[in-house]
């Protein structure tokens, strides 16, 4: 499959991983864009609640219906209930509905943010939500030497930066220094061609895992800051 689908599949497999106990039931995706990840969340049987957030109201207007149940979902209802909410807002803001999320997903989001917003994203995710799992993907600029005509350029006009493996690793270490109740595992998606293994994967991937014995400190004065676009309850057996 193309790289963007490989990313969704890798994220889905991480969420399905047997090592999570209990398995994540509530998942938040920031920068959900066209809601393409939604159908992959639906393939994870233990997920009961998905909150999809994007700052772009136009994109959500157009695509939010993708979060709704399909005819096939009525023909083959799930064992577990599933509610999907589509909200318009920024990862820089801490909406109360994010609380209680067991996993947070940011696929190709951080490189679209100014550094100041990346800092706010860190406090929203690791300070406010404090999920058991946080998954990030972002381009690996070391891989760009393999992309023709890309020297000195970013892969997309809206990218504010593209990090090398060292820069991405430094960012994850900075987060661990501030939030020492997390560990991180770094890998990637999209293998390089034979003979170019030294450039690493096309996309970098970090999975932050909250320490088992850590008891989250949840904020008490949060309120609803995002706009609700859609709320769907999927058919259940
Ligand atoms: N995750 C999507 C996927 O895998 O299909 C692609 C993400 S797209 C490259 C980046 C998205 O981030 C855009 O839809 C953009 O509107 C959104 N975005 C940018 N700044 C944001 C912010 N501060 N909070 C939430 N979403 C933001």
Q: For the report, how would you describe the main beta sheet? A: 8 strands, mixed
**Beta-strand percent range:** 15-25%
> Would you list the SSEs in sequence order as H and E?
HEHEHHEEHEHEEE
The rounded Rg comes to 18 Å
Average pLDDT figure = 96
Which residues form runs of ≥5 with pLDDT under 50? none
What is the 3D form?
Answer: globular
Bound molecules: S-adenosylmethionine
How would you classify the quaternary structure?
single chain
Helical stretch tally: 6
- Helicity level, as a percent range? 10-25%
Spatial strand arrangement across the major sheet? 6-7-5-4-1-2-3-8
Number of strands: 8
What structural class should be given to the helix and strand makeup? alpha/beta
How far the N terminus sits from the C terminus, by CA atoms, comes to 32 Å
């Amino acid at each position: 499959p193309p790289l963007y689908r490989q990313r969704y599949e890798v994220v889905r497999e991480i969420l399905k991983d047997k090592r999570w106990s209990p398995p994540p039931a509530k998942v938040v995706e920031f920068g959900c864009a066209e809601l393409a990840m939604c159908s992959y969340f639906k393939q994870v049987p233990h997920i009961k609640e998905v909150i999809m957030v994007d700052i772009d109201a136009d994109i959500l207007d157009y695509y939010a219906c993708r979060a709704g149940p399909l005819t096939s979902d009525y023909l083959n209802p799930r064992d577990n209930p599933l509610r999907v909410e589509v909200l318009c807002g920024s990862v820089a803001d801490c909406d109360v509905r994010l609380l209680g999320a067991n996993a947070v997903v940011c696929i190709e989001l951080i490189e679209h943010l100014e550094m100041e917003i990346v800092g706010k994203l860190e406090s929203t995710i690791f300070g406010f939500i404090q999920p058991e799992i946080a998954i990030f993907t972002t381009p690996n600029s070391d891989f760009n030497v393999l992309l023709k005509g890309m020297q000195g350029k970013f892969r997309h006009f809206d990218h504010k930066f593209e990090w090398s493996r060292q820069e991405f690793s430094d960012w994850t270490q900075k987060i661990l220094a501030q939030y020492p109740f997390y560990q991180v595992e770094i890998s990637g998606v999209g293998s390089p061609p034979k003979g170019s293994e030294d450039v690493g994967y096309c996309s970098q991937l970090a999975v932050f895992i909250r320490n088992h014995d850590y008891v989250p400190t949840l904020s008490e004065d949060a309120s609803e800051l995002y706009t609700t676009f859609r709320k769907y309850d999927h058919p259940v057996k």
